[in-house]
């Protein structure tokens, strides 16, 4: 079974709720995490292999989210080299166990071997999550060979070392201890059925989510539809609906479309966000998730919705929410408008309404730890409290409440939206990436926003400097006998 | 009188403590802040002009630090265009007053006119400090012509608009109100005498601070000497010693050397930090600053020491503290070792001692709002509390307490320090800049660390992309009739 690690963690959370710990360990070549395997330990000890080729920062956050919100703990069991991205993956785990021998070490060798920066996720986790002292982190991050054995434990880079002879026995012991420390979550699980959407040159068609691309304009329209009918609201019935439950399926489809766009459609600069459907049904679905928050399945669905919206926040494209006549921007779907860089709502007598749900209040936090409404009205909790929580709002009321950006009337509507899209699509994509990333996360910073706020910029900058990729740059010359030639100017 | 703005603010704090508000307003050409003037309003209405050519993010922080810690409030009085860096300067002020006419507007026009990013300081202050809603901030930051009049007030971009006819009368009214809201601080002030150090190719020589450069190795040694004799400890005597007071003079000299190095010696990659002098005298000076914290002059001296140490944290060079036989790393001077990326302390029977003072405990916070000890032992306040606050420590004790990185004995000392310096100087300067900036600020992020954590990276990246500076880039073509040609890939 070959799947990507974030997918594997997601599947575990839904399909095997009894699994309380997972072990990520080295592959046959003893290099941690390139072609590594995952073994999973549940109430009974069963294990299967997962092959993953790409572990992004979001993948690492998926492991941490599973630990924090699902009680699915993880152990990095390192036997051999654990370098760079491999150590970043280990840092995402709850604990790190390292073999104490001549060759097993953890390292971030990028600075000394490649002349570039270790992942900001790695550096940030070393000092912020593992709280390694910054001077020791400095020494560690400039040592190509890394740190091993007792010193790795003393500096806080790993939690424990064992001789190779005890490794095989110690791994399941530690995994069992992690699992035992986490509240039991009895099954049965809920299978995640394949989405079987249709992906083609001009878009994606899913049951609830559609992407329509106009390549020449570098614009896409992303439409999310609400439930077609009333959704189950009792825990057992929701579980029975399983991955067909609207909230789960619609947001899985949205996630698929966001990833498709990020990886396969790099030229799309502007995404118009639309919704379709019935406000009341979306609100009822949200209320069921909130009412059953102690049920593991309803909780997992909400956390899934939360993660997909966080991915949208972190997607480097302009999002413009267009709240037009047939829309259904209510509750969790209104979060799309709050996540968007701007929103346009049609002002008309029989025009659209928006509505808030309990999930807008506290169910779907952003990476900065605040809700989108708290971030929108930063430092003004009285404004958030005073929002019209219980009534649908027309454009005038929504504008007055500060919940939408613009509310053109029918005469101006088409021109204003068209011009906004055209103008945005004409601006420098680099400048927009920087601007949007700066504006989207007002308020406190967390490890997550630190990582993403710095990630692309630092790395893009350092990786494209001549000192890295020039003719005599360190990356260019890596593995060759010549020494790199640096421009020594400090910036 | 032509001086730089940060200098002007600093002079005001020391030399004219009775001045409680300053007005920064447009120059003759009505362009805010390029060749702008500053008028200062004190208990009597006196004013003088300041010409400044460079206003860095640190300058803007100097204005904010003066407001927060000195009660020196500032008003941006905008009559005409206030664009880009000009608006960033206005954002640093406590209030912004804008003329309501056809041509006066505030703007961050970089994205639309230049294809690059507005200063992250500007974007961050818009959403974090002024709490402009992020969707409105998005609209504002993509409008080349900016926002004026009532809309600027409604969106929170400025505090008030007035017709041109009332501007001249309204400015002093508002300045007076700001001044009246700030506790009076009666003079007389303390004149900041010129430092008259000697700057030459191979370094800088001041009374207490020396920089010695070895250009071929790209290494400099920065030495700070403690007081030559006992310093005054009573407020009146300290004020009488004035800018000759060791704590003030030594850190002014250190600031001068840091700026000299940053602007004039870009190739220096590694700075060896040394101290010389008597531990007890440094501790006595620190204790006097703490004991007299309610005296305005002692308070200003401490805040100055704080700002210089923050500048060191934000300086993109490697700092290695070398605690050798004749050193005096006590209290405020020990902060140099805590600010350094690593420290080496000689372990010997008659070897050096280090010592902590009350200023290490809470007097000299970093940009993240924590002390350097809190950052060093992040999330472990019991470790900070349990440090040996009252006794000098030898190398073994300092290593045990986690206060130094390495403590080689006399046999290894020279080799180990030499190798550390040589090795560091051989690494990619870009990679080190990124790594050090990531590791230096563990813990919470503040507006300051957000700004600096993103500043150089985002801007360096976006400004050197072909979309900005390529043959058909937006910066290259600015002011010409051709339209830029972008690579549309979103990163």
List the helices and strands and how they pair.
Two copies of one chain form a homodimer.
Chain A: H1 5-15, E1 21-25, E2 37-41, H2 57-70, E3 73-78, E4 81-83, H3 85-92, E5 95-99, E6 105-107, H4 110-114, H5 120-129, H6 134-141, H7 149-154, E7 160-162, H8 164-180, E8 198-200, E9 203-205, E10 209-214, E11 219-225, H9 235-241, H10 246-264, E12 270-276, H11 279-291, H12 296-313, E13 318-323, H13 331-339, E14 342-345, H14 358-362, H15 372-376, H16 381-385, H17 395-400, H18 410-425, H19 429-440, H20 447-463, H21 466-469, H22 474-477
Parallel strand pairs in A: 1-3, 3-5, 4-6, 5-7, 11-12, 12-13, 13-14
Antiparallel strand pairs in A: 1-2, 8-9, 9-10, 10-11
Helix pairs in contact in A: 1-2, 2-3, 3-5, 5-20, 10-12, 12-13
């Amino acid at each position: 079974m070959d799947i990507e690690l974030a997918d594997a963690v997601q599947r575990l959370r839904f399909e095997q709720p009894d699994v309380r710990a997972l072990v990520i360990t080295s592959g046959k070549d003893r290099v941690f995490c390139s072609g590594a395997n995952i073994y999973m330990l549940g109430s009974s000890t069963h294990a299967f292999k997962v092959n993953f080729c790409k572990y992004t920062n979001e993948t690492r956050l998926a492991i941490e989210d599973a630990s924090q919100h699902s009680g699915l703990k993880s152990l990095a069991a390192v036997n051999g080299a654990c370098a760079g991205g491999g150590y970043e993956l280990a840092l995402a785990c709850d604990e790190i166990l390292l073999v104490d021998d001549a060759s097993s070490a953890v390292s971030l060798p990028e600075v000394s071997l490649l002349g570039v920066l270790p992942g900001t996720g790695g550096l940030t986790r070393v000092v912020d999550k593992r709280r390694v002292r910054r001077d020791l982190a400095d020494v560690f991050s400039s040592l190509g060979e890394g740190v091993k054995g007792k010193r790795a434990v003393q500096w806080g880079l790993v939690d424990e070392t064992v001789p190779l002879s005890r490794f095989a026995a110690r791994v399941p012991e530690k995994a069992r201890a992690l699992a035992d420390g986490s509240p039991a979550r009895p099954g049965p699980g809920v299978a995640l059925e394949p989405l079987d959407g249709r992906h083609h040159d001009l878009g994606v068609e899913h049951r609830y989510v559609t992407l329509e691309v106009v390549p020449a304009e570098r614009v896409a329209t992303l439409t999310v539809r609400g439930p077609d009918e009333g959704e189950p609201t009792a825990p057992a019935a929701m579980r029975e609906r399983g991955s067909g439950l609207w909230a789960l399926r619609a947001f899985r489809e949205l996630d698929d479309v966001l990833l498709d766009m990020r990886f396969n459609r790099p030229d799309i600069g502007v995404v118009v966000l639309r919704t379709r459907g019935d406000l009341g049904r979306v609100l009822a679905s949200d209320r069921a998730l909130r009412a059953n928050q102690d049920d593991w399945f309803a909780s997992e669905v909400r956390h899934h919705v939360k993660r997909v919206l966080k991915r949208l926040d972190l997607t480097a494209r302009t999002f413009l929410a267009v709240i037009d006549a047939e829309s259904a921007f209510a509750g969790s779907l209104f979060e799309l408008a709050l996540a968007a860089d701007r929103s346009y709502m049609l002002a008309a007598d029989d025009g659209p309404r928006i509505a808030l749900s309990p999930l807008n209040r506290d169910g779907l936090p952003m990476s900065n730890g605040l809700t989108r409404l708290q971030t929108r009205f930063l430092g003004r909790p009285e404004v958030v409290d005073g929002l019209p929580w219980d009534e649908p709002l027309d454009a005038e009321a929504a504008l007055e409440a500060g919940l939408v950006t613009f509310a053109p009337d029918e005469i101006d509507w088409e021109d204003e939206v068209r011009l906004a899209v055209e103008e945005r699509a004409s601006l420098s994509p680099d400048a927009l990436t920087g601007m949007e990333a700066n504006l989207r996360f007002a308020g406190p910073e967390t490890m997550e926003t630190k990582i993403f706020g710095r990630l692309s910029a630092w790395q893009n900058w350092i990786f494209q400097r001549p000192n890295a990729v020039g003719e005599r740059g360190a990356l260019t010359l890596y593995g060759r006998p010549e020494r790199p030639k640096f421009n020594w100017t400090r910036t």
